[in-house]
């Protein structure tokens, strides 16, 4: 189809407005994103719309794309029909009119980016405020919470500096009856973990609400608006973009072990049993942050190839010569593995000489054995 400028017009439609127009239900705003069930495959929070970038992505079915792709997904239209639904029928514009359209589209995009950056800075400021008001974690319920998760640090008298304790933190959920308002569902002790960006600056905090009366040590609160569901006991404030929770970084470290979650990363650390003594242990906070954007297309869903134009994903520091990702969770192991491969290959591409491996703890498999027996990942396609 000859480009008549309508694709650019379609890209000017703000995602928030489009989501309203398509009446996609149950999306909740967090920072620059709308998160909720996928209009294609359902679920709870696998679907995200980036308001800043004007794109969407489903972590399960891998549906993704721009405004036009979203209309295709929700209404089941083909490309020409989706474009027409969005911006009307084909137009015959003069080159001047088309140039003017492009200029306005650029201006609009810059404004949106500036607004998103302002919101990001506000969120970072809030995260720093939360962090500065919290207490050192040593000899607090944070130690007991981790012990409940089977994590006994060798020197629990000295908790890693990335952790802090809050005696009382408010857990809120969006109010279903009053748009933009929140309802407090719990107030109590919490573990904080610092999320640092590549330069080491604190850009976010990860909060876990503690309830030592629960088997897993986290609060279990029935969701006030979703029957049969509980409220997530963990929350990230600020920006996790390219960041990590730097749990343990020995001097002269050359290896790094990273899992998505704090508990898994710590489990790997306490299970290493004398091996990997000099390794750093960092949590990647979020699988998407560890993976970054992937190259997608026919046959590439599980290929695990990074899209190197993504500048936002986590990249290990220069000193990392060996990077080991621990595969966490098991909701969709094949896709999770593809994402981890993408992140490792990104690191290999950007840090020449770095070697990489994935370990996947399973039933009855010892974490330490795994760390020792990890098979290297290669840059080639289809190395599995
Ligand atoms: Zn989906």
Overview in brief:
The chain is an alpha+beta fold. Helix content is 31%, strand content 24%.
SSE map:
Layout: H1 6-11, H2 15-21, E1 28-30, E2 33-38, E3 42-50, E4 55-58, E5 64-65, H3 67-75, H4 79-87, H5 95-133, E6 135-136, H6 141-148, E7 163-174, E8 182-196, E9 202-209, E10 234-238, E11 245-248, E12 255-259, H7 262-271, E13 280-283, H8 287-291, E14 322-326, H9 333-350, E15 355-359, H10 367-373, E16 375-377
Parallel strand pairs: 12-13, 12-14, 14-15
Antiparallel strand pairs: 1-2, 2-3, 3-4, 4-5, 6-7, 7-8, 8-9, 9-10, 11-13, 15-16
Describe the overall structure:
The structure is a single chain. This protein is of the alpha+beta class and 384 residues long. The two termini are 39 Å apart. Helix 3 (67-75) crosses helix 4. The protein has helices at residues 6-11, 15-21, 67-75, 79-87, 95-133, 141-148, 262-271, 287-291, 333-350, 367-373; strands at residues 28-30, 33-38, 42-50, 55-58, 64-65, 135-136, 163-174, 182-196, 202-209, 234-238, 245-248, 255-259, 280-283, 322-326, 355-359, 375-377. Strand 12 (255-259), helix 7 and strand 13 (280-283) form a beta-alpha-beta unit. The strands form three sheets. Strands 11-13-12-14-15-16 form a six-stranded mixed beta sheet, sandwiched between helices. Strands 1-2-3-4-5 form a five-stranded antiparallel beta sheet, with helices on one face. Strands 6-7-8-9-10 form a five-stranded antiparallel beta sheet. The protein has three domains: 1-133, Zinc finger, CHC2-typedomain (DNA Primase, Chain A), CATH 3.90.580.10; 135-239, no CATH class; 244-384, 3-Layer(aba) Sandwich (Rossmann fold). It binds zinc ion (ZN). Zinc ion (ZN) binds next to loops.
